[in-house]
Amino acid sequence: MAAKVTLQRESLVPFIQILGPDGMANPNDVVELGLKPHDFKALYRWMVLARTFDERALALQRQGRLGTYAPLLGQEAAQVGSAYALKPEDWVFPSYREHAVLAMRGQSWLQLFTYWGGNEEGNRIPEGMRNFMICVPIATQILHATGAAWAAKLKGEKSCAIVYFGDGATSEGDFHEGLNFAGVFKVPVVFFCQNNQYAISVPRTRQTASETLAQKALAYGFEGVQVDGNDVFAVYKVTRDALEKARAGGGPTLIEAVTYRLTHHTTADDWTRYRPAEEVEMWKQKDPIKRLRLYLEKQGLWSEQDEAKLLEEAKAEIAQAVAQYEALPKRDVEDIFKYMYAEMPWNLKEQLQELKDYLAEHGGDLPHE
Amino acid sequence: MPQMTLVQAINDALKTEMRRDPTVIVMGEDVGVNGGVFRATEGLYQEFGPDRAIDTPLAESGIVGTAIGMAINGLKPVAEIQFDGFMAPAFDQIISHAARIRWRSRGRFHVPIVIRVPYGGGIRALEHHSEAPEAYYVHTPGLKVVIPSNPYDAKGLLISAIRDPDPVIFFEPKRLYRAFRQEVPEGDYTVPIGKASLVREGTDVTVITWGAMVRVCLQAIEQLEGISVELIDLRTLKPLDIETVLTSVAKTGRAVIVQEAPRTCSLASELIALINERLLLQLQAPVVRVTGYDTHIPYLTMEQYYLPDAGRVKKGIEKVLSF
Ligand SMILES: Cc1ncc(C[n+]2csc(CCOP(=O)(O)OP(=O)(O)O)c2C)c(N)n1
Ligand SMILES: [Mg+2]
């Protein structure tokens, strides 16, 4: 007799949530995090800072004081929770939306404004810091993370790499190649996918017929896990566990943080063209910041006064960065040529001189036309 | 006749061809529901449905590779690559396959696809959104490369590209998308591939350019007094309209080439070689190049120093005249 085959619609990967939208959490799950009240407050502070930065950056762009900007609104927990689990010796490979991650890793808000203001200096990573630069070509950074972590393994270091990318990125060939190499060579890398449900206008269901993104890991021979990306506790937990596993020689993990981009893809986008307002409203109910605040309040760790004070401090911190950003000196055109090679070849020297001569003929800058 | 911007003319060309020929389909990232990030494909999804205005997964190699497969099986895909900088993942499919299939199959198969690409700098965009990569594709045997500089040409050239039996890389200068309007005929007309346009006649010097630089050159020419400039808009970068170029340079004896792409091994380099090979003894001066520099195009606070402006074009013209 033929064996009975049952088709299951159950997910192939676990889905982890600790903190619900109502701010409720199972106390045992929280204890297991190993975090103290000051950690909770630090997580909250980072999320609030990130949102304050985001609001300010959007406003500056609308006023013509910043270039095209990619907001993170709604994705604060995914970023803050994961970055909180990192060690300084770990490598971070961001895409373009990880403002909170970069700030937590020690890059200044000023530096972020500088980048989004269209100044290459914003990409200058402070010496010794293991952050790589903002990556715009989708999914390409995944391979770099695999390589950096692979090198750590080959050199016998205890560091890992984490790479951030979106749901859309999982469709690129580089995603496949990066995960495949990591699986084959058992590389200590964490693939952190922020599934914010859209790649610009294209919904997640148009990227893959796969039930989840996390389960793609199984085909590469390693673990995949889905986590509530708006739950900072759960995100912290799965990232920490994945990093610990990697450090212990257990190889890579793919984390799919299920979250939502609450506003436009970038300031050049208009979300009303491709998704209903009700959907956005529904996700606003799952706001990651509100959730942690409710929890803190319930635990008696947070008051109205604390909130007011934090908001004020966050505003001041960001305002100071804006002031510094807007006071940045005008750069010399040599900056365009300076970093092409270790040593400037003859053609660049000639072209730089050509440009300098041209500007000199017009009183030191471009002629007004 | 309706007045259209360049991006509206592109949109109109797509609609015109899709209405005429049911095998024409549009595919790419955000080209369906959203109508394209520049709105070039606006309304196609509504008029032709999701099977002809196709939102693809985010994968450029996938877009071009599957377009090739569709083309050999009878469809005429117009694939959009969202920005010039993101052609790179599709490069393999373009150069190893699209460009070679007619040759490799001894004419049995061919690839009538169009790859539309918003092109070039000047819109204060992020990194990888302002590139001028035409030289790679002009260099590759088996491809055609087209770049309009105004709405009328954009529509006529795109219709020609869609009807062309070979793969066409169709660069759209994004800084011209909404820069100005022009009368564009309704319905069907073509502008031939392989034919340059003589924008302005003159006798002292020939300026050869394409894309967004056509307007920059016109601006420069208007500022020059007492110099008679002949301006050629190549429109097709490959196959090059060598006859128009040589006829003009033989007449003026002087040439300036203006492009926003980096200088080394660029189309400007090839034009100089062609002119020198055929007209060296008729030249009054070495040909001058006004180009982007051999660096990456800077981020938005500095890109204006990189892109040729009217002042640099004037300087180039003065240089070739004062030799
Ligand atoms: C290779 C490449 N193709 C296209 C783009 C244009 N683009 C920028 S962001 C984006 C969508 C990315 O979606 P996702 O990976 O989900 O990340 P999200 O923006 O949602 O964070 C696209 C298509 C790009 N930057 N790189
Ligand atoms: Mg996304």
In short:
The complex is a heterodimer of chains A (369) and B (323). With 369 residues, chain A is of the alpha/beta class.
Describe this structure in words.
The complex is a heterodimer of chains A (369) and B (323). Chain A has two domains: 316 residues, Thiamin diphosphate (ThDP)-binding fold, Pyr/PP domains (Rossmann fold, 3-Layer(aba) Sandwich); 39 residues, no CATH class. Helices cover 45% and strands 9% of the residues of chain A. Chain A is built from 14 helices and eight strands. In chain A, the strands form two sheets. In chain A, strands 1-7-8-4-3-2 form a six-stranded parallel β-sheet, with helices on both faces. The mean pLDDT of chain A is 96. In chain B, β13, α10 and β14 form a beta-alpha-beta unit. Chain B starts with a strand and ends with a helix. The mean pLDDT of chain B is 98. The structure holds thiamine diphosphate and magnesium ion (MG). The site of magnesium ion has 6 residues of chain A, from β5.
Termini separation of chain A (Å)?
86 Å
Helix and strand run of chain A: EHHHEHHHEHEEEHEHEHHHHH
Q: What would you say the CATH architecture of the largest domain in chain B is?
A: 3-Layer(aba) Sandwich
Give the tally of β-strands of chain B: 14
Our Rg estimate of chain B from Cα atoms comes to 19 Å
The DSSP helix count of chain A reads 14
Instruction: Characterize the main sheet of chain B.
Output: 7 strands, mixed
**Helicity level of chain B, as a percent range?**
25-40%
Strand order of the largest sheet of chain B: 3-2-4-5-7-6-12
Poorly predicted ranges of chain A? none
Q: Supply the number of structural domains of chain A.
A: 2
CATH class of the largest domain in chain A: Alpha Beta
Gyration radius over CA of chain A: 22 Å
